[in-house]
């Protein structure tokens, strides 16, 4: 079993019958969703809120019942991946492009488990470029304003055209170097008018499940 699968499947041990679940997006939580699909076939009663159209399609194919975010006030648990995590439980997310919906879903979750492989656990965030979702209107201006914060933003591309999120927006991938004050940067970025949301998740994850190359799994609790 690869490290991502180990972490993804381990997280599902925290799921209990009757739970309302946030279903993350990406290559690690993919394994959690596959496992949930198996358990649903065997009678587990859960409902999920997907964080992307990709996860929505996957869940529908697996027969996982879904509800819309608007129809609920709180989720019991969200399981999602991350591109980087540190020992303060701060995350960079958005490599998969779903950061906005992921953050909305995480914000109403009583618990948030992050599933990663051991290559994503870092001392300092920032080697992975921080994804920032911006509106298309005036995007060059927003890029300039983000770069003035000390980053080198690049418009994310997809086959020679700008990558478009599920929300119809663009993404800037931003090299800030080592991020020392994740909360401050998160708030400063979101003050720029053309910025919709950024991939810094602070005070959201309470558990990090790490799949290791050697086949073991480590769990960190906040
Ligand atoms: C993300 O945060 O964009 C993804 O969930 C990371 C992943 O692929 O696991």
Automatic annotation (TrEMBL):
CDD domains: RPI_A. GO terms for molecular function: ribose-5-phosphate isomerase activity. It comes from the Bacteria. Coiled coil: none annotated. The keyword Isomerase applies. Keywords: Isomerase. The keyword Isomerase applies. Its EC number is 5.3.1.6. Homodimer. NCBIfam families: PRK00702.1, rpiA. Belongs to the ribose 5-phosphate isomerase family. PANTHER family: RIBOSE-5-PHOSPHATE ISOMERASE. Catalyzes the reversible conversion of ribose-5-phosphate to ribulose 5-phosphate. HAMAP family: Rib_5P_isom_A (MF_00170). This is Ribose-5-phosphate isomerase A. The gene is rpiA.
